[in-house]
Amino acid sequence: MMKIEGYSRMLIPSILSVSLLTIMAPTAVSPALAAICDAFPGISQTQAKLVLTLPTLVMMPIGLFSARLTARIDKKKLLLLGMSLFLVFGVAGGFVSDFRLLLVMRLLFGLGLGIMTPLSTSLIFDFAPDPAKRSKLLGMQGASNQLGGLVFMILSGILANISWRYSFLTYAFVLVSIILTFIYMPSMPPMEPKKQAPGGDKQKLNKKIFLLAFFAMMIFACYFVINTDLALFMDVEGIGDAKQCGYALSLMRIPAIIAGISLAWIMRNLKDWTMPFATVIMAAGYLVIAYADSFAVVMAGCLIVGLGGGFALPPISLYLPRIVTPRQRTFGIAIIMSVAQLGQFISPLYTSMFVSDVNPEACRLRFVVSAITTVVIGFMVLGFTYTLPKKALEG
């Protein structure tokens, strides 16, 4: 097991256990969505989907706010607060009998998730100042994200078959993270404010952070096209049913996990060319799907997209130290991750700008649009890196 010098070997599992939860959290109960509709017959399918989307909408502003709070509150205490909200209101969703109260539970659950998400990444920068170790840890974090999505989606589905209420019990896994964090994570008190020279201005946030956040958003938007369009594509083309679609979407996380584990080696050899490399792989997967005529070919395309996504998503954060100072990194991470989350929502809107629903080839063309966009963004990121200093900023 990798060890961060000067800290317990259990520190890394503590940090990664939080990463297991953050990506899967909003959609963990999606297998129970149909049962929730049946349990509350007065709601529409659109209203039922709020159970999945409300936490994500809340976590964006809360993520930015919690990053500001780290200037005043110990990060460990803040993380424990976020996980406590995650536990209480995540599990509580399975005990309510009124749909409006369920939505309130999901909003409060989003508060906890919003606190946890930026901290899960910023802690890696705090405890791993060495770029090589940081790359390895971010790769492991990406693998943990994908593993969490795979394991908890399956577990939630099994529990949802018993009762939709039991599906919410998957959130109780955060108890493991709470225990690990409480025991093994050292306190992270706020950094002392840097003294300004007489007449000096307060250090401003580099505007390039917003361009980096835009790149992250577009990468997420392209990656999530497969989640929004694959089932429809397979149905229209007569390639497979919903069960086979779920099978493909679950298995594509396996190469993403492998990519996360090997990310540090890839970045050490390709450096700033990692993003173009990753996006070309992801685009190749989308083109395979776009021209697929059987489930086997679709499955191959999904696996390639998963591999490319595993390489493309984590490295975005690694450019942060070359843009902002250590004191600004938690807030910078919150900006990137909050804006990146918008990618899930703009994904179908973006592809519809280029492809009309009345086009008989619409389903295939959306994957082509995603492939082209992914490669363009990858090389835009490469060009962006040439405007940055080669080493991390200090101060």
Low-confidence stretches: 197-201
How many domains in all? 2
Q: How much of the polypeptide forms β-strand, as a percent range?
A: under 5%
CATH homolog superfamily of the largest domain:
MFS general substrate transporter like domains
Assembly form of the protein:
single chain
Distance between the termini: 31 Å
Total count of helical runs of at least 4 residues: 16
String of helices and strands: HHHHHHHHHHHHHHHH
Features:
single chain, 395 residues, mainly alpha, Growth Hormone, Chain: A
Q: Care to describe what's here?
A:
The chain is globular and about 55 Å long. It is mostly helical and 395 residues long. Helix 5 (75-92) runs antiparallel to helix 6. It has 2 domains: 11-184, Up-down Bundle (Growth Hormone, Chain: A), CATH 1.20.1250; 208-385, Growth Hormone, Chain: A, CATH 1.20.1250.20. It contains 16 helices and no strands.
Task: Provide a short characterization of the protein structure.
The chain has helices at 11-22, 33-39, 45-48, 50-69, 75-92, 99-127, 131-162, 174-184, 208-223, 225-236, 242-251, 253-270, 274-290, 295-312, 329-352, 362-385. It is an all-alpha fold. The protein has two domains: 11-184, MFS general substrate transporter like domains (Growth Hormone, Chain: A); 208-385, Growth Hormone, Chain: A.
